[in-house]
């Protein structure tokens, strides 16, 4: 049984990927310092799959602890989620973001290459494109100057990996996520935003649950179908399955070059108002919202061209926006 290390494996996307890895028969080890999640997720994963992953509480910023982990554990591959991801927060805390998102990656890559551990999957983001000139966005779209330290940390992360693959023979795939949303159909794992949610869907569900007074829609003066910004909202379970496909490509040595990257989205754009309307259908009642000014750093529109992932990873989304919103609402209602 192949052993896969999942860093950030108790987080939103990490936990859903751990479930899919176990479903595929992989043995999973998780490193998570619980800085943005809860240890309860470990039991919830076990309650879904019946298998409790090995869990180690390590802070990847402590290089000696990263080395110590690999001195004591054998792995066949690594899926690296552990990072800070709040765009707005990164603008006010750049050093924390560069330390946590980049130092950790350097330490991790150092251990993998020192021990000839191949097969590295990196959690990247459509944020690397900024506002693309053409839509849908293909992998050949230029990477533009980042609008935030978070976005820059993903761009630099990809370059760190690319150069390591070139120089030291690592095989890696970066997955550029669009907007992950929703929850596992078991409603035992989902998005657990700490504090006031930055992202649209958790803010919508918390508003519908009465935890927030109303949703502020950041701008309705964009050049889009209804003036509100457009994004590609992908069900987190479909996103998790893309990692299984990417891992299989590396383990079966089907990769064409030793560093590849793929856009992981639905290929469909939805505006904020279209998402609100779809959510109201899922919940069965109107959502409280008001239109306010644009949010600093937001782009007008982003949605993926998924041709390359469909073809090379033999992966495509199977779940709809409605199913994602329905699961997000059910997950919210299940919270204490
Ligand atoms: C979506 C849309 C907002 C909140 C994020 C991450 C990015 C990547 C993808 C990880 C935008 C609008 C939001 C609110 C609103 N994730 N909005 N009111 O900014 O597209 O990107 O997910 O890699 O790194 O930042 O997602 O959910 O914040 O915003 O109107 O209260 O919803 O303006 O148009 P975003 P988001």
Summarize the structure.
The protein is of the alpha/beta class and 336 residues long. It has helices spanning 12-23, 40-49, 63-72, 87-92, 94-114, 149-168, 200-208, 236-251, 272-283, 307-312, 321-334; strands at 3-7, 27-31, 54-56, 77-80, 120-125, 172-177, 179-181, 215-218, 230-231, 233-235, 259-264, 270-271, 289-292. The chain is 40% helix and 16% strand.
Helical stretch count?
Answer: 11
Distance between the termini: 37 Å
Approximately what portion of the residues adopt beta-strand conformation?
15-25%
Assigned CATH class of the domain at 3-184 and 235-265? Alpha Beta
CATH architecture of the domain at 3-184 and 235-265: 3-Layer(aba) Sandwich
Rg for CA atoms: 19 Å
CATH topology of the domain at 3-184 and 235-265: Rossmann fold
User: Any low-confidence stretches, pLDDT <50, length ≥5?
Assistant: none
Tell the overall outline: globular
Walkthrough of the structure:
This protein has 336 residues and is α/β, with parallel strands linked by helices. It has a domain at 3-184 and 235-265: Rossmann fold (3-Layer(aba) Sandwich). Helix content is 40%, strand content 16%. It has helices at 12-23, 40-49, 63-72, 87-92, 94-114, 149-168, 200-208, 236-251, 272-283, 307-312, 321-334, and strands spanning 3-7, 27-31, 54-56, 77-80, 120-125, 172-177, 179-181, 215-218, 230-231, 233-235, 259-264, 270-271, 289-292. The strands form 4 sheets. The chain has a 7-stranded parallel β-sheet, with helices on both faces. Helix 2 (40-49) links the parallel strand 2 and strand 3. The model has no long low-confidence stretch (mean pLDDT 97). The structure holds UDP-4-deoxy-4-formamido-beta-L-arabinopyranose (WQD). UDP-4-deoxy-4-formamido-beta-L-arabinopyranose binds next to helix 7 and strand 8.
């Amino acid at each position: 049984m192949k052993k896969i290390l999942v860093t950030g494996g108790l987080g939103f996307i990490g936990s859903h990927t751990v479930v899919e890895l176990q479903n595929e028969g992989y043995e999973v080890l998780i490193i998570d310092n619980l800085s943005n999640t809860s240890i309860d997720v470990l039991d919830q994963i076990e309650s879904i799959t019946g298998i409790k992953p090995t869990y180690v509480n390590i802070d990847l910023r402590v290089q000696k602890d990263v080395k110590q982990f690999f001195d004591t554990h054998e792995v066949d591959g690594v899926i690296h989620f552990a990072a800070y991801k709040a765009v707005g927060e990164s603008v006010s805390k750049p050093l924390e973001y560069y330390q946590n998102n980049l130092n950790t990656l350097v330490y991790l890559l150092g251990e993998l290459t020192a021990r000839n551990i191949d097969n590295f999957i990196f959690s990247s983001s459509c944020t690397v494109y900024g506002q693309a000139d053409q839509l849908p966005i293909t992998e050949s779209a230029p990477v533009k100057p980042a609008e935030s330290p978070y976005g820059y940390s993903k761009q630099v992360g990809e370059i760190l990996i690319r150069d390591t693959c070139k120089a030291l023979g690592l095989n890696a795939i970066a997955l550029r996520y669009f907007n992950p949303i929703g929850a596992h159909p078991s409603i035992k794992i989902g998005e657990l935003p700490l504090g006031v949610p930055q992202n649209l869907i958790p803010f919508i569900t918390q508003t519908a649950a009465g935890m927030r007074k109303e949703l502020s829609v950041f701008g309705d003066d964009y050049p889009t179908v209804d003036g509100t910004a457009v994004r590609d909202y992908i069900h987190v379970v479909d996103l998790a399955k893309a990692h299984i496909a990417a891992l299989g490509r590396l383990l079966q040595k089907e990769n064409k070059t030793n560093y590849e990257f793929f856009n992981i989205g639905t290929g469909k754009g939805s505006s904020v108002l279209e998402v609100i309307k779809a959510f109201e259908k899922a919940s069965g009642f109107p959502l409280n919202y008001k239109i306010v000014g644009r949010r600093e750093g937001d782009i007008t529109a982003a949605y993926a061209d998924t041709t390359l992932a469909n073809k090379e990873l033999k992966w495509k989304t199977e779940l709809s926006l409605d199913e994602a919103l329905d699961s997000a609402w059910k997950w919210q209602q299940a919270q204490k």
